[in-house]
Automatic annotation (TrEMBL):
This is Malate dehydrogenase. Residues 6-145 form the Lactate/malate dehydrogenase N-terminal domain. GO terms for molecular function: L-malate dehydrogenase (NAD+) activity. It comes from Dietzia lutea. Belongs to the LDH/MDH superfamily. MDH type 2 family. Pfam families: Ldh_1_C, Ldh_1_N. Signal peptide: none annotated. NAD(+) binds at G11, A12, A13, G14, K15, I16, A17, D42, N105, Q112, V129, G130, N131. InterPro entries: L-lactate/malate_DH, Lactate/malate_DH_C, Lactate/malate_DH_N, Lactate_DH/Glyco_Ohase_4_C, Malate_DH_type2, NAD(P)-bd_dom_sf. Transmembrane segments: none annotated. Catalyzes the reversible oxidation of malate to oxaloacetate.
Length: 327
């Protein structure tokens, strides 16, 4: 067998982690030959519940589990980490203003960014799930100056997967036949799920999609899917969020296939007129263990306006975080 990978999951007692941890322990991300050392971080009041999750992982008797450690100590949690899923975040409480939310999360992600900078392994890969995910990733990245910017990503793969699934249903296709989707901008209501480059079995299909359906049904449905799940299921999405986090880390570690791309939110290099350093959704391929932004796509007027609007929201979140002295 290979050397074990050390994987840190924060918010380990929460709903998303409850789906995520078992998939990690089953080898879905690092492959069937790679044992995992699991590090479960949560806040002190949740550590006992995290121990309960660890007991269940033990009871699965999974052959790839090398060890499980539960901690409320941020430094210990990231020590030697090769991969980190930052799931734990402060949820928006009743009457909480955006600045309160940014302050609470800013403190969490600043501390974790610093711990990653000082203690994680040189090949650390970070996927931020906890909301506001893009800006939380930005904060962590800003506090980890020794870690390459591209190692800090936020999760927009769930938005991407939601878009793929809606399109497959509309076209009567399988998800596996579709390619060329990208979700630009922020993991928020302003996100822009873009079908301009959509192909089915390698053939362009966008011309056959009704523009009214795209603008009035598809885009709002994908962007509002989280609220729809809460309304129907009575609880926020958890398994699908965990599944998307697995997809993102697996593709990052093991590569995307051929010319296919996916959506990753990462600190922008200014591609496609986005603002450098804000963490925005971009079309990416994974090659040699690194994300590469797909180059040379043509951007039309409709796309320009939507991308700019969502990036403007990210810039305002960044400015709010800066004004609070958090990044
Ligand atoms: P979940 O596990 O359901 O969600 C965790 C985070 O993921 C939330 O910020 C949530 O945002 C976000 N998220 C991102 N995408 C999605 C999606 N598609 N659907 C649902 N959520 C999404 O939250 P729980 O409350 O069950 O668990 C949170 C855990 O985090 C608790 O155990 C808590 O103690 C812990 N925590 C840990 C911290 C730490 O490790 N330092 C800090 C703070 C909390 P949103 O709320 O906007 O839906």
């Amino acid at each position: 067998t290979n050397t074990p990978v050390t994987v840190t999951v924060t918010g380990a007692a929460g709903k998303i982690a409850y789906s995520l941890l078992f998939r990690l322990a089953s080898g879905l991300v690092f492959g069937p030959g790679t044992p995992v050392r699991l590090r479960l971080l949560d806040i002190p009041s949740a550590v006992v519940a995290a121990e309960g999750v660890a007991m269940e992982i033990e009871d699965c008797a999974l052959p790839l589990v090398d060890s499980i450690e539960i901690t409320d100590d941020v430094t210990a949690a990231f020590d030697g980490a090769n991969a980190a899923f930052l799931v734990g975040a402060r949820p928006r409480g009743k009457g909480m203003e955006r600045a309160d939310l940014l302050t609470a999360n800013g403190a969490i992600f600043r501390e974790q960014g610093r711990a990653i900078n000082d203690h994680a392994a040189a090949d650390i890969r970070v996927v931020v799930v906890g909301n506001p995910a893009n800006t939380n990733a930005y904060i962590a990245h800003r506090h980890a100056p020794d870690v390459p910017a591209g190692r800090f990503t936020a999760l927009m793969r769930l938005d991407h997967n939601r878009a793929l699934s809606q399109l497959a249903t509309r076209l009567g296709a399988r998800v596996s036949e579709l390619d060329g989707v990208v979700v630009w901008g922020n993991h928020s209501a302003t996100q822009f799920p873009d079908v301009t480059y959509l192909t089915r079995g390698g053939e362009p299909v966008t011309a056959g999609l009704d523009p009214e359906w795209l603008a009035d049904t598809f885009i709002p449905r994908v962007a509002g899917r989280g609220a729809e799940i809460i309304a129907v299921r009575g609880s926020s999405s958890a398994a699908s969020a965990a599944g998307a986090a697995v997809d993102q880390m697996r593709d990052w570690v093991r590569g995307t296939s051929g010319e296919s791309w996916t959506t990753v939110a990462l600190p922008s290099g200014g591609e496609y007129g986005t603002v450098p350093d804000v963490v925005t959704g971009l079309p990416c391929r994974s090659r040699g263990g690194e994300w590469e932004v797909v180059e040379g796509l043509e951007i039309g007027e409709f796309q320009r306006a939507r991308i700019d609007a969502s990036v403007a929201e990210l810039v305002s979140e960044r400015d709010a975080v800066r004004a609070l002295g958090l990044a």
